[in-house]
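thought: fold this chain, then report.
action: predict
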Amino acid sequence: MSAAHAYHDHAGDHFAAHAADGAHNAYTDRPAMLALAGDVDGLRVLDAGCGGGHYAAELVARGADVVAVDGSDSLVAHARGLLGDTAEVRRHDLDTPLAFAGDASFDGVVCALVLHHLTDRAGFLGEVRRVLRPGGWFLLSTTHPVSDWRFFGGSYFDESWVEFPIADGITMRFQRMTLETVVTEVLAAGFTLERLVEPRAVEALREVNPDRYERLTERPSFVALRLRRAHS
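observation:
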């Protein structure tokens, strides 16, 4: 993600541990994003904002050739530890151009729960379109605007930067966005929208944490989009 808003040091360690088996990541967003990805066997995929490498590991297991990047040294270390030599992992600030990638060099791009951390979303979306081959797909998830509104209150249309506590002494800084903003920005960047999903927790969470399962199936936490780069 953006180096300025990435999870560094202890925060990165906490996030990697949570992402491995936490209700929001492992049982809600990740299953939804992988379902949207479909068959990735033989495809070259960029994991933009890879965190601890858990999405990348699933994509590799499904036969994808993965390049995984993140703006946090701590999370890059976790991703390399998880992925070993099965994927290319590099540190990269997503608020800067994807200079390591050539035009039309990927079949798909995954960007899970990262967009709301970026300060140059238009620049990032333009770069994603550039590195995707014509007809390539782009999977994007972000915090659900209704969830943010419920937590922070005020106007639904407030798009200020906020701090969300995730553990003792650790906060997540991100920008609130309306659903209108998210969809308008990706369409303006030259993508077509194929599917919009509001991920619910998968049934397996019911056995692990029934209370969290109920919450994550009654109210939205994330919104996920499957987008396509036009052939032109």
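thought: worth noting. The mean pLDDT is 92.
final: tokens above.
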